[in-house]
Specification:
Structural class: alpha+beta
Length: 703
Amino acid sequence: MSQISTPMEFKNYKVFNYTLAGRPLVVETGKLAGLANGSVLIRYGETAILCCATASAKPRDGIDFLPLSVDYDERMYAAGKIPGGYLKREGKPSEKAVLTSRVIDRPIRPLFPKDLRNDVALTLTVMSVDPDCSPEITAMIGASLALSISDIPWNGPIGGVFMGLVDGKLVVNPTEAEQKKSDLQLTVAASMEKVVMIEAGANEVDDETMFNAIMMAHAEIKDLLGFINAIIDEIGKPKFDYPSCELDHEMFDKVFDFCEKDMMIALDTDDKNIRDERVVPITDAIVEKFGEEYPEIGGMMDELIYKIQKKIVRRWLLVDKKRVDGRRMDQIRPLGSEVGLLPRAHGSGLFTRGQTQVLTVATLGMLSEAQMLDGIDSETEKRYMHHYNMPGFSTGEAKSTRSPGRREIGHGALAERSLVPVLPTPEEFPYAIRLVSDVVSSNGSTSQGSVCGSTLALMDAGVPIKAPVAGISCGLITAEDGSWDIMLDIQGLEDFYGDMDFKVAGTHKGITSIQMDLKVDGLTPEIIKAALEQTHVGRDYIIDEVLLKAIAEPRAEVSKYAPKMTTFKIDPDKIREVIGKGGSVIQKIVAESGAKVDIEDDGTICIAAANGENAAAAKAMIDAIVFEPEVGAVYTGKVTGIKEFGCFVEYAPGKEGMVHISKIAPKRIEKVEDVLALGDVVKVKYMGLDKKGRMDFSIKDAD
């Protein structure tokens, strides 16, 4: 006997409603992904994202870090698109998806217990996209909710908003139309008490406006967190217990007492290579001394050395106000810059800060070489591309070169964002631009070194940037009593053992980008203001004393090895004539001139050639094809044909017009040959169109 299924009831299904920046935010739980530790379907306007948090039952063996993964998973159907390419399905994450994963990871990671080693995975599946309701912010809020209501140990929640600056007014979660006009793209994540993440791109926004935007964002987030906390109170699960993976305190204290003085001597140098060499015998001595008492000590040596060095470095910074390399807290490492290192490259710049060195190389190409984008938003191409590479040799490691990871993609995007506000428009400089920053030596702040190297490379390539951009980072050291201090221009050890990496890039006028990484539970307004002030002083110094002394202004001309560009517009109705049947005309132009020609649908034509003569030749051919005579204008041409009824005159290259026999001479003539011969040069006047719509020329009226 057949059975008829009844509709399923979801007993734990709940819906929570909130209004964020004037748009509905709806959280649904208990219906989807019930096997995850925590899950929500979050809707913001018509944006919908399924956010799932899962954790392994046991810690992963042999690691000394939290194995957290955050995956922002874009589904092309979310934007009503079919993926491009042969397979027609989603492949590896887009660059934007990788960057969004990093933005969500950064505020979430510091809030996990320091001794948790269970695998934790956050999967944020974008199922519907409303351009007016940011899927990135929606995913961040959803991730916080999924973790908060789950049984996974986490010291959240956090909330996030996106800030814009439209016509001088700060706007929370601007719409797509407002974002196109905005001078600020600022993402802020925060807890109820502190700001935990800042990511910004800006059109030279001043420090005060940036600070006010961050504070406004925090105020909005506090209201949002009230909504999130109400959901946690109603359906949140108790957090599960886990075995602590902290180092044995007694063992650590013994080892620290044994090697403290030697480690202090090892760390007291500004040379990373010397420091690493000094640590090797200390490591050997620890194993020899404690190997019998603690047989497992060899497997935990990396974490042990890390914590020993961290304790010493933090004590120096907090108590002695001493930095590893002897600098003052507000002092920048030795700086250097050069341009024109690579003769065949279109532009190159080497920026050095201490033991960090970044070589950035600029390449110019046709606008048609812009990167095509296949994503869930409205951006379809990118004219300016910045790629960042950090090979193993830059840190003295013996490892093979592999494809870029999330860190490399993130650092390249940060440098790219930093320079976009000062780039000329395509109309001002009709080139696609690619920068590659190769880190050849790394001891902290390579992303900001890439920003400085990029300014040098662009200016060396003759790109007329509006102003030079410099980048610098500052660190933070905090004490248990709440006291803190800022360090300008942090090197590797200070990044590893400090509490913050606050990166700011900009011009003299204002900020172009910010990225903040934290290892503590957040920043107070006072710390944020101090960081903005110190980095402003630092970047001003770098611009004036380093970058502009290497190259005072962009070169007047692009490299002789760069393509020479000519851009102009024609009537879109003439495009068909320039292309020709099956592309025959455009192919002939390219073959005869030696130039490359791109034609846009709006009639914009871009010509690229190895030299100006080739570009001019291609332009002359196109001008001849699209040339239209003016009524009343007189042209000099050559007689190309003689008929009984008149003659044909080439009044422009490739353009012929007919002169009726009655308009050849002031008096009546019987034959055209009586006054004209093939090849004669004559003046003709364009009279307009005749009654049949034909072009009408006259020789007798040209005088």
